[in-house]
Amino acid sequence: MFLNISDKTKNTIFLRSFRARLFIIILILGIVPCLIMRYGIVNGYENHAVEQRVNVVQNQLMIVANHLVSNNYLSNDRAVGSKSDTFDVIDAELETIANLYEGRVLIVNKNFKVVKDTYDLSVDKIIISEEVIRCFNGENISHYDSEHGYIEMTTPITDTNSSNNDIKGVMLTSISNDSIVGTMKVLSRKAVLVEALTLVVVLFLAFAASGLLTKPFKRVTNAIIEVRDGHRDEAISVTDYSETVHIVDAFNQMLAQMRAQEKSRQEFVSNVSHELKTPMASMKVLADSLLGEANVPAELYREFLVDIGKEIDRENQIITDLLSLVKMDKAVSAMNVSSISINEMTELVLKRLRPIARKKDVELVFESIRPVTAEVDEVKMMQIVTNLVENAIKYNKDHGSVKVTLDADYQYFTLEVADTGMGIPEEDFAHIYERFYRVDKSHSREIGGTGLGLAITKQAVLLHKGTIKVTSAENEGTTFVVKIPLNYIK
Ligand code: ADP
User: Fold this and answer.
1) Residue 343 contacts by C-beta under 8 Å, 6 or more apart in sequence?
2) Is the CATH number of domain 243-328 1.10.287.130?
3) Which of 65, 252, 371, 420 is most buried, taking the most CB atoms under 10 A from its CB?
4) Could you tell me the pTM of the whole model?
């Protein structure tokens, strides 16, 4: 049972090989014409040889037929002595033809009576066959029976002297086709020999050609293996076929993508380590300076511990943001979609952020052009609004303002967060969604930024199949516009 299965698998693997298929195709293309040619030549020869033989024999029989007529062979007095010599000559002619073609000649007179049989078996018998009757009507009939190995033909014995070419009798001849069969056998044998030779040559050619033609694909595989095993760094190139060029191009693109991903992963890891180490380093410095001094006043302890607490909060914030990002990176299945009122949700976010805004004396305004209900992941949507509004407050100037506008058409809703803050230089537009990217590092850290907020926001927007755009003028303000489909698209 197991043997069967593995044999079957082996067979399918063999047949699925491009080289094997190529080999079989070349083999068929080489052998089939050979077989057709043999069949054509042997069969063609047979038909031609039979036709020729019939013509030759018919000609000879016609000559004898003329003799028969001129010597009145078919008349009733054929046994009379004076003519018997002539008749013997004619009989000898007939015997010669019969012997020469290994056959038998019967002469039938008008009364369908056999007057001569070279086998002497049917003399005086009556033959009323279709062929004989048709021959009396002037038709020359020949019939080849390849199965039993003979050719049968009828030849009219015509009196050319009579006014209406009287048919005096019929010659019924059957001759052997042994010599034709013999030649055919020799031909066949030679053809089989040629076929065997061709098969050997075609086998060799098919093997060599299939190997040669599939070589570029092997080269592609080997190049990919070299890259996989790390023995090769640069892009691979196999230019033999346009097909290999396409495969290799696709592979090179994938490789470039993977390398870019790997680079960004490494950058991310080093950024994470750096970001996590910074608060730790601050805590260590604070702790060391406390430990290094004797008789530290209690107020200083308190002050330093408050600072240490702030660093712990920061560390905590980075870890929370990182976890959010990781969650966002997960597949779409992580989306928990429900239909919610975006107005209510935005109001709630603004309410939560109002105390921070108040600290900076930043005015928070919400304008809803129309009420919006949409199918979104509530937690992720809240994160989007929170991050944008929080940034708009954080990067605002004192006594500035933040305006949140909600609008919708029949397909999308748009959430606009416009502030009157410091703005973002245009060259930074492309980078602000990168992880840990900050326009002004020291300022951002100072006000508690992790550099992850917009990365999280963008990821969340993309999970909703939405878009996020920024416009900004330095020292005037920034506007983020988020556009999300009202109905969630999977
Ligand atoms: P952070 O946690 O540092 O705020 P974000 O990913 O949210 O990180 O933002 C990335 C950077 O983009 C910020 O450091 C800041 O420099 C800039 N930025 C974001 N929002 C605004 C805004 N509303 N006004 C000015 N700059 C902004």
Assistant:
1) 368, 371, 372, 406
2) yes
3) 65
4) 0.59
